[in-house]
Structures are given as C-alpha cells and as structure tokens.
C-alpha cells in the first residue's frame, strides 16, 4: 500500500518523523518510540484514542513544537502512541482534518476538540488564512517524491480552470469532514 507522507519535525532540537498527511482526521500522533523534548514538550495527562478505516492508535497527549514546510506550530497537540495498528509503514499521522473530528477521542473530556495543524498555525497568526491545498500525483513507485502541500494559501500551479470557494456541507453525515454539497447534470 502507498501512503503520501511528509517529513515533520517535532520538538527542540527537532526530530524528523515521516508522517501520513491525513485530511480525514484531527488527532496527530507519532508511533511508539517518541522521546519528548526536555525543552519544548509538555505532557497534558490526557490519553487520546482514534479509530480509522485502516487501524487505530492510543497514546499520551503532548503539546510540542511541530514544524512542516518551514512553518512551526507551538504547543501543538501531538500524541505519543503507546498502541497502534494498521500504520506500520509510516511514523504516525499529521492531522489536517477539521477539529470536530477529534471530539470523543479524549479520555478526560469527550467534548474536547483538538485543532488541526493548519487551524493551530492560523490561531497563532503564523498564516493569514486557515486553508491548505494538497497535490498528490498518482504513482506506482514507493520512492517517488511527487506531491506538494501549500499551507495558508492555494496552489495555483496544479489544476486547470477557475478557482472558487464553496461552503462546507451542513449534511450531518459529512459536515465533520471537508464535505461539499454538489449537484451534477448528465447529458442535456
């Protein structure tokens, strides 16, 4: 199975982790072996758990410095997995999904919502808009480096046609995700 990953740096001094970029979750985590930084890491005392279509993770939540593409989110929620299944090819997940997806994953507070990496950067005024664009070119090579993430703006070099903004769906089944309401017409 192929995953699109990015090198994400955690703590100070920064340690590199190859994390899956996931637009369908809101909890970021690193698999077993994460060593907290003595200078930037702060354990919250919370245990975070999440189930995915491919597996699950459970671990201790930390607030730490997390850097991707030259942008550093301070005191960002990232968990150190004590258990994980289904993600043996990657070092964990960097969550890009809406914070509502994290609700129910905390053992201390089921209503807790953890902001995504992009939402955290925006709240800390590191980027001027809470948006991102991702371009992944299909490949059959594990070693291919052919994707791009743009954070804080849109990438206009990939794709064709006019760019426009649409509202997120209010449909309860998809509104927690990046769901959109669309209608199609086929033929005449």
CATH homologous group name: Acid Proteases
Structural class: mainly beta
Provide the β-strand percentage band. 35-45%
> Cα-atom Rg, whole angstroms?
17 Å
Instruction: Please identify the top-level CATH class.
Output: Mainly Beta
Give the CA-based shape: globular
Report, as a whole number of angstroms, the end-to-end distance: 40 Å
Largest beta sheet: strand ordering: 1-2-7-3-6-5
- The topology string of helices and strands comes to EEEEEEEHEE
Roughly what is the average pLDDT, rounded to an integer?
84
Q: What share of residues is helical? A: under 10%
> Could you please say which CATH topology applies here?
Cathepsin D, subunit A, domain 1
Number of helices: 1
Can you tell me the CATH architecture? Beta Barrel
Please give a structural write-up.
- The longest helix has 7 residues, at 117-123.
- The chain has one domain: Acid Proteases (Cathepsin D, subunit A, domain 1), CATH 2.40.70.10.
- With 188 residues, the protein is mainly β.
- It is 4% helix and 37% strand.
- It starts with a strand and ends in a 37-residue tail after the last strand.
- 30% of the residues are buried.
Write a concise synopsis of the structure shown.
By secondary structure, the protein is mainly beta. Helices cover 4% and strands 37% of the residues. The protein has one domain (5-151): Beta Barrel (Cathepsin D, subunit A, domain 1), CATH 2.40.70.
Q: Tags for this entry?
A:
mainly beta; 6-stranded mixed barrel; two-stranded antiparallel sheet; 1 helix; 9 strands; globular
């Amino acid at each position: 199975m192929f995953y699109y990953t990015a090198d994400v740096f955690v703590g100070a001094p920064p340690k590199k982790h190859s994390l899956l970029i996931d637009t369908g979750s809101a909890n970021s985590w690193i698999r077993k072996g994460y060593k907290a930084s003595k200078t930037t890491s702060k354990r919250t005392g919370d245990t975070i758990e999440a189930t995915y279509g491919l597996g699950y993770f459970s671990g201790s939540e930390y607030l730490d410095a997390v850097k991707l593409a030259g942008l550093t989110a301070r005191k960002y929620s990232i968990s150190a997995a004590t258990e994980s299944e289904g993600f043996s090819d990657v070092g964990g997940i960097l969550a890009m999904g809406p914070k509502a997806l994290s609700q129910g994953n905390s053992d201390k507070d089921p209503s807790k919502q953890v902001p995504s990496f992009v939402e955290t950067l925006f709240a800390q005024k590191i980027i001027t808009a809470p948006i991102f664009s991702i371009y992944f070119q299909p490949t059959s090579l594990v070693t291919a480096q052919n994707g791009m993430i743009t954070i804080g703006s849109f990438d206009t070099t990939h794709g064709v046609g006019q760019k426009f903004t649409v509202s997120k769906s209010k449909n309860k089944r998809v509104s927690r995700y990046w769901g959109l309401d669309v209608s199609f017409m086929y033929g005449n």
